[in-house]
Amino acid sequence: MSERIDRQWQPPEDALATTVEARKGAGSPWAKALREMGAVDRAVYQAVADTPTPHLDAHVRRLSNAANFSRLWLGLAAGIAVFGGKRGHRAALEGVVAIGATSAAVNLGIKPIARRRRPERAADTGQARFVSMPGSTSFPSGHSASAFAFAYAVGRHLPGLAVPIRLLAGGVAYSRVHTGVHYPGDVAIGSIVGAGTAAIVAAASDGLSRSRRRD
Fold it and tell me: Rounded to two decimals, what is the model's pTM?
């Protein structure tokens, strides 16, 4: 894996801009817009990295680590299944399936194609802020994708949990930027991929339920 990461080429937005220029010409406004979006993405990351937050760092780091391997979401799924009744059982099951489908889409489908480098963390940033740098590529954020996939699945079955669980998902997504392992664009696209994949899982689940009722 490390050899593959060492062969990273351009960030996704620059690679897309290059592709657009090859088709539309060097002066393409779409290519310029893509490069400007990439510049904004890196600038926002740098602004977060340069802002001292000693009272937040340890808490944000713990939240980020809690979501490793989806442990946070699997633990919540277990609690929802135990205490949520029939709807809780379905929400928990669909949430876990959505996490699995999203993880496959991100890690097997998108990351190998995008091949974005992880951010360079400043050497003088406090160690209390850091989590271990993953060995995988950066785009999109798998943590964010899994978080919003689970939040979508649970929220549609248990509306009372929709807002708090989405806030928690947003916190996990932000934590990946704060701890220096993702750019904001990684977590934004990861969140969209997660919610979109969960919507597909939900549609399949609803179709299966209707089919069973007809039988």
Answer: 0.88
Q: Which of helix, strand or coil describes residue 80?
A: helix
Alpha carbon distance 74, 94 (integer Å): 11
Across the chain, mean pLDDT equals 89
Pick the CATH number of 53-214 from 1.10.606.20, 3.30.750.24, 3.10.560.10, 1.10.287.1040: 1.10.606.20
| Integer angstrom CA distances of residue 49 from 126, 135, 175 | 10, 20, 12
d(CA 13, CA 211): 42
111-139, pLDDT tens digit by residue?
A: 998 888 899 887 655 567 889 999 999 99
Alpha-helical segments (H) within the chain: 2-6, 12-24, 29-50, 54-66, 71-83, 85-104, 111-114, 142-157, 159-178, 184-214
pLDDT tens string 7-52: 445 667 777 777 888 888 878 888 888 888 889 999 999 999 999 9
User: Would you kindly state where each structural domain of the chain is located, as residue ranges?
Assistant: 53-214
Over range 186-194, report the average pLDDT: 97
b/e sequence 83-109, b meaning 16+ C-beta within 10 Å: ebeeebebbbbbbbbbbebbbebbeee
**Is the CB of residue 182 less than 8 Å from the CB of residue 147?**
no
